[in-house]
Amino acid sequence: MTVPEFVKAKAEGRRLSVLTAYDCLWASILDDAGVDAILVGDSLSMVVQGHRTTLPVTLDQMIYHGEIVTRSVKNTLVIVDLPFMSYQVSSRQAVRNAGRIFKETGAQAVKLEGGVNQAKTIEKLSECDLPVMAHVGMRPQSVHKLGKMSAIQRDEDELLKDAKAAESAGAFAIVLELIPAEIAKVISAEISIPTIGIGAGPHCDGQVLVGPDMFGLSGFQPKFLKKYADIRNIALDATKEFVADVQAGRFPDESHSH
Ligand code: KIV
């Protein structure tokens, strides 16, 4: 999957599947399963590092995980998030840091949060031929302005302006996070690049979920999330069984001994 193929999917009416991953085990599973793109999201700050927000993860840490994921896939497009304060200072800062992501991870695209407010930066990145995905609606890096991560964004005019500004500036796709389904439908019809929804209803051109949430690893269960597996409980039961076997002397037995 390349960026142009990802963009073409919208014109061809083919819906896009995107999941987050941060390491080689999960990246290779998603790749084998045929997901269109893997996002090395700054959600790794929460689901991997255990922070309460996405703000603490650093650029070096994003690059570390981005390189692992890119090296672990054969077909899937890899997009790496520009973390908090790695692009907001200036377009020059954004180009320098996005450049590091492309050079050091091998990913094909970066994502940043913003629409109208980041249009100049999206334009600058695009001028440098660095494909950029925008992210409008609920923007987790703005958590302290919004007051909470789960704030649904309902201002249709503002959302449409953000999406159109990102498209005009050269973004190749846009994440729509936590917005009403009807507004996502309007935006998806009004712009020509793919909209990738999370908590934005069924009318987007594609859907993204945080891998550890949809596999039931994180315990996070918002209304928009469909849990496709319950891996936390499977791992919990397996671990309890191992502990009990070791304590009872059942493991290792003869079949596991040399
Ligand atoms: O960081 C992330 O995982 C994201 C998705 C929620 C879209 O930005």
Structure overview:
By secondary structure, the protein is of the alpha/beta class. It has 2 domains: 3-227, TIM Barrel (Alpha-Beta Barrel); 231-258. 43% of the residues lie in helices and 14% in strands. The chain has 11 helices and 8 strands. The protein has an 8-stranded parallel beta barrel, surrounded by 7 helices. Helix 6 links the parallel strand 4 and strand 5. The radius of gyration is 20 Å and the shape is globular. The N and C termini lie far apart (46 Å). The mean pLDDT is 97. It binds 3-methyl-2-oxobutanoic acid. 3-methyl-2-oxobutanoic acid (KIV) binds at residues 20, 39, 41-43, 81, 135, 175, 198, 208, 210. 3-methyl-2-oxobutanoic acid is lined by residues 20, 39, 41-43, 81, 135, 175, 198, 208, 210.
Give a quick rundown of the structure:
The protein has 258 residues and is α/β, with parallel strands linked by helices. It is built from eleven helices and eight strands.
Blueprint (SSEs and pairs):
Elements: H1 3-11, E1 16-20, H2 24-33, E2 37-40, H3 44-47, H4 59-72, E3 77-81, H5 91-105, E4 109-111, H6 119-127, E5 132-137, H7 143-146, H8 156-169, E6 173-177, H9 181-190, E7 195-198, E8 206-209, H10 211-214, H11 231-248
Parallel strand pairs: 1-2, 1-8, 2-3, 3-4, 4-5, 5-6, 6-7, 7-8
Helix pairs in contact: 2-4, 4-5, 5-6, 6-8, 8-9
The chain binds 3-methyl-2-oxobutanoic acid (KIV).
3-methyl-2-oxobutanoic acid (KIV) binds next to loops.
How many beta-strand segments? 8
What is the CA-atom radius of gyration, in angstroms?
20 Å
The chain-level mean pLDDT equals: 97
CATH superfamily of the largest domain: Phosphoenolpyruvate-binding domains
Number of helices: 11
In what range is the share of β-strand residues?
A: 5-15%
Succession of helices and strands: HEHEHHEHEHEHHEHEEHH
Considering DSSP H and I runs of 4 or more, what fraction of the residues is helical? 40-55%
- Biggest sheet overview: 8 strands, parallel, barrel
CATH architecture of the largest domain: Alpha-Beta Barrel
Structural class, by secondary structure, is: alpha/beta
Please give the domain count: 2
Bound small molecules, by name, code or SMILES, are: 3-methyl-2-oxobutanoic acid
Distance between the termini: 46 Å
Low-confidence stretches: none
CATH top level label of the largest domain: Alpha Beta
CATH topology of the largest domain: TIM Barrel
Oligomer: single chain
- Identify the overall geometry: globular
What strand line-up does the widest sheet have? 1-2-3-4-5-6-7-8
